[in-house]
Write a structure and sequence with these properties.
Elements lengths: L8 H7 L9 E4 L5 H10 L7 E4 L2 E5 L5 E4 L4 E7 L8 H20 L3 E4 L3 E4 L2 E13 L2 E11 L19 H5 L5 H20 L3 H11 L6 E5 L4 E9 L5 E4 L5 E4 L3 E4 L3
Parallel strand pairs: 1-2
Antiparallel strand pairs: 2-5, 3-4, 5-9, 6-7, 7-8, 8-9, 10-11, 10-14, 11-12, 12-13
Helix pairs in contact: 1-5, 3-5, 3-6
């Protein structure tokens, strides 16, 4: 596939086979951020399940205000969701999205994708996907959630700054060939719909168990970095709310609700 070839949106529509997710696709050749566009559409009253897809982003966003590099050939999309859940449950949307991405990659491409808490999908211990969940509320009421998904698909990692080439990869690099992006998007959205509906039906434990099976870090030594502190421990589990549980060197357990987690190689 030539990278000049754009996504075939009609092919996605034909093969999607979802009940409601992705039935409305807002497609762009270029935008600043699909999350920004999705937010504008949500404010205009677009229904839950509408998605924004762009060939490239000029100001893609990562966690903690970081820039997300989004060249042509990647999968850059955002989903509008309107869940009737408590704000404390929003981490579960990030976790179920990671499960959907990892399982789509594993099943469609037959490569081993794993999850690093809270929002990264890895292949060969390198980041191939990031997820950014943004919420918008009016007072205490949740209005909508934007789930941004960025998958490094059909491009060479030479487009990344040198400091990222040791920590990131692309599906093209892993497989030695370009992939069918439409097929991955369809699989991802079908799985996303399935796990999201499971969450709304209260089947949280099943989702968290799927996450555990795909985790790259449980049982590993990790370093936690936040604005206030930095410490090490062993990642032992996620709790029923989706927060990471780390056992410190003195044996105490600590719940991690934010921060960067790095697996320590021994």
């Amino acid at each position: 596939m030539n990278l000049k070839q754009k996504l075939n949106i009609e092919e996605i529509r034909r093969n999607l086979k979802t009940k409601w997710l992705g039935k409305k696709i807002y497609y762009l050749s270029e935008t600043d951020s699909t999350n920004n566009v999705a937010r504008e559409l949500a404010e205009q009253g677009f229904k839950e399940g509408a998605i924004v897809v762009s060939e490239t982003q000029t100001r893609g966003k990562g966690r903690l205000g970081r820039k997300w590099i989004s060249p042509k050939g990647g999968i850059w999309l955002s989903i509008i969701l309107k869940p009737k859940i408590k704000p404390s449950e929003l981490i579960k949307i990030t976790l179920l999205t990671a499960v959907a991405v990892a399982k789509a990659i594993k099943e469609e491409l037959n490569i081993n994708a794993e999850i690093k808490w809270p929002n990264d999908v890895l292949v060969d211990d390198r980041k191939v996907c990031g997820i950014l969940t943004e919420t918008f509320s009016q007072g205490e009421k949740l209005q909508y959630v934007i789930v941004g998904i960025g998958i490094n698909a059909n491009f060479d990692i030479s487009v990344f700054p040198e400091k990222l080439r040791c920590t990131a990869t692309s599906l093209k690099k892993v497989l030695g060939r370009e992939i069918n992006r439409e097929r991955i998007i369809c699989s991802l959205l079908r799985k996303m719909e399935f796990y999201y509906e499971a969450l709304l039906k209260g089947r949280t434990k099943a989702i968290l168990n799927e996450w555990r099976k795909l985790s790259s870090m449980l049982g590993c030594k990790v370093e936690i970095s936040s604005f206030k502190e930095r410490f090490e421990g062993t990642a032992v589990d996620i709790d029923d709310e989706g927060w990471l549980i780390v056992r410190l060197d003195d044996g105490t357990l600590q719940k991690i609700v934010s921060g960067d987690v790095t697996v320590r190689k021994t």
